[in-house]
Amino acid sequence: MLWLSIYLSNFALEVFGETETPFAVRTGPDNRPVVHVCNGAAEEHGIHPGQPLEAAFALCHTLLTRERDRAAEHQALNALALWSQQFTPLVHIRPHEGLMLEVAGSRKLFGGLAALRDGVAEGLQEMGYRAHLTVAPTPLGGWLLAKNGVELLIEERDRLRDILQRLPLSGLEVKPETIAALRGMGLRRVGDVLRQPRGALARRVGPDFYDYLDRAIGLRADPRRPFEPPSHFDGRLPLPAEVDNTDALLFAARRLVLELVGLLRAKGAGVQDMRLTLEHRGRPESELPIGLRRPSRDADHLLTLIRERLERFELPASTDAIGLHADRFPERESEHDDLFSGEQTGIPDASAWLEKLRARLGDNAVGGLGPAADHRPEKAWRPCPPGHDDNTGCIPNAPLPTTKPLRPLWLFPEPKPLEQRNGRPRLKGELHLIRGPERIETGWWDGDDAARDYFIAADVHGEHFWIYRERRSQGWFLQGVFA
Amino acid sequence: MNLNSLLTRADIWRGRDTSPQTTPHLSTGHPALDERLGGGWPVGALTEILVDQKGIGELRLLTPALAHLSRAYWQAWIAPPHIPYAPALAAAGIDLQRLVWIRTCGDDQTLWSLEQSLRSGVCGAVLGWPGRADNRALRRLQLAAEHGEASGFLFRPRQEAHQPSPAAVRLELELEHDTRGLTVHILKRRGGWAGQPVVLSAA
After folding, report:
1. How far is the first Cα of chain A from the last one, in angstroms, to the nearest whole number?
2. What's the pLDDT at A429?
């Protein structure tokens, strides 16, 4: 087995979105909080971890701070574990600190260990995480090296043992008393301990300590409980400061989208419905559903949809955390049964374009047209989804009742009553009847009957209109334009 | 910027150049007009149709090309002044399944939709009725049309004829009073002077 250990060196800070202003995560009791970790901008003011918060404020009075958010860390690490399943099915979580990935099985798939490691590193960087990555034959050995900042690709157990021997005892994750006791015996490094006779030392520091070392160097099996992915995706990102503009929200959403896409890759699936949630202090959260025409796992496309959705949304208040949720991961349709890709017909795939339009303009603003088998002109067409989804009741192949008589290219939503003089219709002047009448008498069966005589009429400028006279009332109406 | 790159810019055209057309064109379906336009409607560029009246055949001018395009591409109708009437479109041979009707609120949405559609690469033709569009906005649309290799058709009032425009072709439409034919004045085209107006007979 080979394990890629990922130690997230700045995790408590990075679970909050990025900010360029001085920012620190605080811990400790409420009356004496200290800086747990801070960003580079804060460091430039001389702020450092462990410092009382009061002192930090004295150095920089505009310092933003947030209480350490262990729940957010838990959630973010889960999301990262989901994301990393695109590299291997066996992922183990080190709570609040990092991940271990078993990569022996997948190294070939990614073009070797180094390429795999680089792929993970790039992905983490893209999401805004700093990490130390080490590959080693044991999970604990590699983890200890990564945690101590030693980034290596180690495939042989002997080499791992050599390197671990040089690790200072303070780099181990054991009780401080144990380290103190060993130091008291003049031992400084792991190698010093390994050279001692086991029996005597085990009595001093307890058998668990040797057990621990044996797992690190591979003398003892070290099974790791695999992370079991939940059936849904719930990403959440608390923001360092309240945000009230779309760009900043989008920036934060990016990480969540990348995490989701990692999960989708692992599942070999796509996402078709997402929910974006915006948390506002002291107000109910905003929920923005985002639907796709067909499943996708293209991060740029998903982000575009989120951008369009956000730009169309009026924030009720500033936002201090953002979430992304999805719970259905349909398989991506094979291309040729997809209406929009038009594999059979050579029609280009319009889904990305249509989704973008819909996200910005609203679902109802983007539609298609279909003919309808009805002789009443205003009912001889109906709105359809573009491309005519088959379940909309459109009859694309219905015989067109109107191929013979001339029909106008523009139709008015409602017929407009026309003035008349001496029984002749007028529209800013007299209208000349050019062609007609064409009698249309239908619709009595649903109580919406039409008995009309249609004419093509021209005004003095030569513009052509479609007008009719209602037979019962003898009133004239304008219904279309021959454009 | 060298001369050659300058000459390929959409907003620069050479009056005297009568060299054979190398840019792709789409037949208008009206042979006389094709001849005057050097092959037909430009592809990957804007065509402006300046017209004040409605109902003089301004859409019929396009329907042959739209019918042809609808077999292989999508087409967008953006912010039309009325409902595009399906039976008449179908009768003109346009495949309704490939037509997308986009309703917008305000000029910003209209221009945005035009740009997205022209740029999408999936639209053969994009028809738009922008309320207000300055030269800068038109330039963006022209670039989008180049990028998406779409034919963009903008319907605008005739008073715009006096404003400069990056469109590759500018037409002004008028009704011929005697014959009821449609007079097409070619104000601008790529690669040549337009010469005499074309009169298309009434359908």
Report:
1. 74
2. 86
Residue B198 phi, psi dihedral angles, 5° rounding: -105, 135
β-strand partners of B185: B172
How many C-beta neighbours within 10 Å does residue B22 have?
6
Q: Are B43 and B151 in contact (CB under 8 A)?
A: yes
Find, among A289, A270, A312, A295, the residue nearest to A351 by Cα.
Answer: A295
Q: Pick the residue from chain B with its C-alpha nearest to A400.
A: B87
Question: B177 or B166: which carries more pLDDT confidence?
Answer: B166
Cα–Cα distances (Å) from B106 to B109, B112, B133, in that order, read: 6, 10, 12
Asked if residues B160 and B134 have their Cβ atoms less than 8 Å apart, the reply is no
Task: Provide the residue type at A128 as one letter.
Answer: G
The pLDDT tens digits of the residues spanning B102-151 come to 999 999 999 999 999 999 999 999 999 998 888 999 999 999 999 999 99
Mean pLDDT computed over B167-187: 85
> What confidence tens digit (pLDDT) does each residue in A310-364 have?
988 888 999 999 999 999 888 765 433 344 444 344 677 888 899 999 999 988 8
Interchain pair B74, A348: CB under 8 A: yes
**Nearest residue on chain A to B61, judged by CA atoms?**
A483
Beta bridge partners of A477: A417, A468
Rounded alpha-carbon distances, angstroms, from residue A270 to A48, A232, A264, A297, A322: 43, 12, 6, 5, 21
In the prediction, which pLDDT does B122 show?
93
How far is the first Cα of chain B from the last one, in angstroms, to the nearest whole number? 48
**Which residues from chain B sit within 8 angstroms of residue A354, using beta carbons?**
100
Strand positions, DSSP E, A196-281:
233-243, 271-280
Average pLDDT, chain A: 87
CB A373 within 8 A of CB B107: no
pLDDT, residue B21, reads 46
Q: Which helix (H) or strand (E) holds A92?
A: strand A91-94
DSSP state of A189: B
Residue B113 confidence (pLDDT) = 96
Contact list in A for residue B92 (CB cut-off 8 A) is 409
Rounded to 5°, the CA angle A44-A50-A53 comes to 75
The pLDDT > 70 percentage for chain B reads: 84
Residue numbers of B between 50 and 69 with CB closer than 8 Å to A: 53-60, 63
Count the residues in chain B: 203
The amino acid at A44 = E
DSSP secondary structure letter of residue B81: S
Residues of A in contact with B58 (CB under 8 A): 483
Chain A contact set for B54 (CB, 8 A): 410, 463, 481, 483
With a cut of 60, say whether residue B14 has pLDDT above it.
Answer: no
A86-138 tens-digit pLDDT = 999 899 999 999 999 999 989 988 889 999 999 999 999 999 999 999 999 99
* Cα dihedral value B96, B90, B53, B48, nearest 10: 50
> Mutation test of the interface with chain A: which of B96, B116, B180, B201, choosing the one with the most A Cβ atoms within 10 A?
B96
pLDDT for the residue numbered B200: 84
Letter string b/e over residues B90-102, b meaning 16 or more CB atoms within 10 A of that residue's CB: bbbebbbbbbbbb
**Contacts for A23 with CB less than 8 Å, ≥ 6 apart:** A13, A16, A38, A39, A41, A42, A63, A64, A65, A66, A240, A241
State which amino acid sits at residue A16.
F
